[in-house]
């Protein structure tokens, strides 16, 4: 009888022990564990929490590259189960549209921002500090050196760099015989080149033939052109700037201003065609529109100082959103290595992750990576976004002949 009681007592204790033990996850399985890929890892940020809520993202892209982003977004939605609504705005209208959305209290959860706008939006309390992002979206240790100023203000980071589009110069080497097909190195050589284009017999009929081109109203392209003329051998000084602006004034009637539609989706601008057809000796434009390959009749090179004005884009989270987790995971997916490695082929814009340029397929792009010393300062970037519109109008007036070089000098004032 005692033995029977002992068995009963043992059974009761065993049941109690089982009830107190932690249960195994329902999804557990036997066999070796497979490591998930990077994209899946970024999406696991909340498996044990509530499902991902819907977010809205404002972008500012051309048609063809927006289609690339839509494809990536579709993949993200399928893998995460989230709903992400993309709203694309013409780049030239984005700054105004964003500000109007904030003023009306209908800002999105995530915004694509030009690097020149970040300080403006951050100082106005419109962005969330990147330190509060989740899912690793705020990491910056492996970004290119130029990305810091594009997302920083007041000692904090306010977004995640996505890509950049530096300015380059394309030229016809046959039009530079005085420098053996290479570009002049200083203002004196540039002036000699300009004079050499016109022989005595051709001077009358070719007096107004364009010798240089850039996109109409593109103040950053104009700044890159001035940097090119100032040359690599000259130090930054007011004198070299004044001389470069004087050359712009001298070539005012011989400058081809090309209208480029950012919504056209065209990857190569007409400048390459004009240069290779011997209709224009050289032009300055963004890399995404010029391509990166030299040909027997055209050469292409980055303008080192133009990295200070390169078009950089980043992704930031609106300060008032209650969907930081969802926004962070989406940004981490879009800017992660898995997607950034093919971003250049898809959009023509260079990725921000430094490690990508060490991959065999991207070694030729290393010459477009700026030196850390060439990084641009964010000290006055709060003013840049608001001033660029007026700069563009002033540039138009200059080439219309109603504004002198003194007015142009304001472009370069802090």
Automatic annotation (TrEMBL):
Keyword annotations of the record: Signal, Transport
Superkingdom in the source lineage: Bacteria
Annotated protein name in UniProt: Extracellular solute-binding protein
Signal peptide bounds: 1-23
Region (Disordered) residue spans: 25-46
Stated family: Belongs to the bacterial solute-binding protein 1 family.
Coiled-coil annotated spans: none
Transport found in the keyword field: yes
InterPro entries found in the cross-reference section: SBP
